[in-house]
Specification:
Length: about 160
């Protein structure tokens, strides 16, 4: 059974501005680099008035149970599928570890008292005997530990959009 973590934060902008920010390719690259990515790029796959699909390709140093290994790199990508009218983005993360590690989630933008709210739910399931639960907890802890950086990067990007 997968482990999950959820985070929400309010931003003093309209839901449309927040949606524009989180789906902007420049923001996607900045977000990945703020979390240590060596390289990041975005490839748009589909766009209509109601739907947006894109992939975020990332190169990071290799990660394992003992931490980061700077002698190797790993490529991964996340595919985002946005229902623009519902302001909901479902995503899946494809790791170099294949089907043994599954990471996916949902981003939801809604109105709030101060403007808009971004809610993020992340799920992790690791199918490795004896170590799977421990690795799931490490993934979720890494996401939670990185949340302040994620929020600051988004806040700075929104300020740049409004400037």
């Amino acid at each position: 059974m997968a482990k999950s973590v959820e985070h929400s934060r309010d931003y003093p902008v309209s839901v449309d501005v927040l949606l524009r920010a989180v789906t902007d390719p420049e923001y996607q690259v900045l977000r990945e680099k703020s979390h240590g990515a060596l390289e990041a790029s975005v490839k748009e796959l589909e766009r209509s008035d109601a739907r947006l699909v894109y992939e975020v390709h990332v190169t990071n140093y290799a990660r394992g149970m003992t931490g980061i290994d700077k002698s190797k790199t790993e490529d991964s990508h996340a595919t985002y599928t946005w229902d623009l009218e519902a302001r909901r983005g479902d995503w899946t993360y494809t790791t170099p570890h294949g089907d043994r590690v599954k990471v996916w989630g949902t981003l939801q933008i809604s109105e709030s008292r101060v403007g808009s709210r971004l809610s993020n739910k992340l799920n992790a399931e690791v199918k490795i005997p004896l170590m799977g639960r421990r690795i799931e907890k490490m993934i979720l802890k890494g996401v939670s530990d990185g949340q302040p950086t994620f929020e600051k990067t988004l806040q700075d990007f929104i300020a740049k959009l409004d400037a």
